[in-house]
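Re: weekly structure request thread

Next one in the queue (229 aa):
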Amino acid sequence: MLRSVNRQRDTWIAAILGVVIIVLAAYLFFDHSSRSTASIDSPAATTHPNSLARLRIDDPMALGPVDAPVVLVIYSDYRCPFCAKFSRDTEPRLIERYVDTGKLRIEWRDLPIFGGQSVQAAKAGRAAAEQGRFWEFNRAVYRHAPDRGHAELTDEILLERAREAGVPDLARFQAAVASDRLLPAVQQDIQEAVAIGAASTPVFVINDKPVVGAQPLDVFVSVIEQAQR
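Done, posted below.
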């Protein structure tokens, strides 16, 4: 049994490393000469400002109205310390200032690039979303994340975060995380990230403006304000 589990783990790690290689290749393909240190090239820059937004009314992994003038799409990994920094320091202020006033919609995308635990965490987030507790789970994971290095997210820890987030049916949550049922949705997000050349986390696309990394609040405010004009 242990040998089988280890084989499955190694298979996942190899698969994720393969995705990372593809992402890096896509990233290197882009011309960086016209790029600022806080942005990347993206199809969104030459198409409709909300071309990456899914705008699903019943999307449990989104915050804000579907008719918000600005949509922020975030590509993130639960084990990424910079993603945790954004979640703790910047996201709450953006929600208060823009989401709660109907000016901004935030849509989550999974980009698990730090191994098998990242994939399990992505599945766990979606399992929590199925029970209406996605953002509570999301914040619980990031609240406990270290300032440096990658968070340890075993299945036991993910279960504890789900309990902390108030996921009502923990047995159902565990079954969803243990199965492969939620993987296609995670893979769809990965493919979308590869398509825009996202090579790290977090990456944001705010209407037609890509932003890379846990930038200071004023960077996000500037881009959002400009997008509203």
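The first helix runs from residue 2 to 29. Strands lie at 62-63, 70-76, 104-110, 203-206, 209-212.
Next request, please.
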